[in-house]
Design goal:
The structure is a homodimer of 316-residue chains. With 316 residues, chain A is an alpha/beta fold. Chain A is built from 14 helices and five strands. Chain A has a five-stranded parallel sheet with strand order 2-1-3-4-5, sandwiched between helices.
Chain lengths: 316, 316
Amino acid sequence: ADQNALSEAADRNGQLTKPPGALGRLEDVALWYASWRGEAAPQISAPQVIIFAGNHGVTAQGVSAFPAEVTAQMVMNFEHGGAAINQLAKTFGASLNVHALDLDRPTADFTEGPAMTEAEVVAALQTGWNAVDANADVLVTGEMGIGNTTSAAAIGAALLGGAAADWTGRGTGVDDAGLANKTRVVEQGLAANAGRDGLEVLRKLGGRELAAMVGAIARARFGQIPVILDGFICCAAAACLEKEEAGALDHCVAGHLSAEGAHEKLLAGIGKEPLLSLGLRLGEGSGAALALGVLKAALACHSGMATFAEAGVSDA
Amino acid sequence: ADQNALSEAADRNGQLTKPPGALGRLEDVALWYASWRGEAAPQISAPQVIIFAGNHGVTAQGVSAFPAEVTAQMVMNFEHGGAAINQLAKTFGASLNVHALDLDRPTADFTEGPAMTEAEVVAALQTGWNAVDANADVLVTGEMGIGNTTSAAAIGAALLGGAAADWTGRGTGVDDAGLANKTRVVEQGLAANAGRDGLEVLRKLGGRELAAMVGAIARARFGQIPVILDGFICCAAAACLEKEEAGALDHCVAGHLSAEGAHEKLLAGIGKEPLLSLGLRLGEGSGAALALGVLKAALACHSGMATFAEAGVSDA
């Protein structure tokens, strides 16, 4: 982050025609955004949403309410413009790219060993890295992958500790028996995969779409592109990066608090306060895309408002 | 609200390509909006933001951190496009109208008797009523008026009970001594004005911009135009209407929870759960305009998404 830009942005913020602090968190995120863009009064004009899709071997254990074919079907839906994320990206003027990662070759079932080989996780990281548009001025990373709340629960438990049951939720909507089974699967995954390093956990308990999100988030950092994190799965992936290097998510803001129960613990683990809390639990980057509206509004105010002097308004 | 439209909208919602309930509160507000528009799959294409400005005799008691001249100065700022609400309206594609109500003739100081005569409150209600564009498809009512958190605090206490201190906050930023003085002023206003009917409270403790918001909210109801309520002052005005007739705010959603301390109690008093909570305390309709982004997104999803059948996606 650029401390000069931050300081200039803070000076500007203090002169805008409003009582000090009256725009609340909009002021905080505007300053944070300005510091990462290296400009005192930046605009948001080129948001990019990227959805990564992957399939999970662990679906063989019956962890989802939906069949694994739905991953590929939803990729078609994204491409045809029919999903929630299509409408959200359009509403807030974002480009939308979809990357399906080897859907016909699911990861290995992590109850029996690592989900991915080193070559596989590196390939997925690279797909994510390369998917970022260098000209984007804010990035949303979303995902689709039947079974991936199971993966995210295992990652949360591996990185942050606690029992499998504390991290396992209903995902797309499993019943009580399904939840008990899913919890057992997470426990088995933790038992079958030693090692608690960030990137090792990503490889062993994650999935291709999670690794791709990690690659994209890392790439955004090098391009001074602020990132809005989505829900449980996106934050599980991001937590692997933070665990690998503290501060690696300083260019990221949490878009929302998901209704998937353990998301709050995951956000606390990466030290992020969500912008929105509207009970979403869809993935696809939907909560982050919704928060894009808030971030755009924050920068529109910060960079577009008149100062007291410009407007001839008396200060307090 | 149109129960047929609501039922058709709920049917549609159940067929969209997402797990049931996965869009959380976006689904609730989409159905609420559809019921008030009388359409199963409506779009939002013509949002209107109206700011009403008024001056308050009670500013003679030193209740604000800013001088009373700032009301007129901010009206100029709205007209020149320099305020926060201008940037927010532009961000979310809303038209913006500004109505200054007799700024050179402040209301009477309510510590000495009613703020307005009957003719004055009726004129302000009419201004609000007439300001609504019959072709708008959602309405945000905002306000500007130095001294009006004092008025809103007195209204809250009069309508919902409790001590003046429970309802009085720092507004644009008074210090401890200022807060003590403001609390005394609210107490005196309550003592000087008997009668706890909704519209009587509005006349005696309110202001022209509050009455105009009431007129606009009532007019919107007759035009099937859903309303997004803003913060403390807007909700105090709206509460007068609800007190006059229970259910009068059923066509309204609460846009946000303000940082002005008593807003939460006021929202509870009118039975509304805010969409956003971002620490805003600016007025001008700013919190409601920010929530307009959420409402637009909700309807874009509801009316734009493909169904499982259309997209060829397997249901759970």
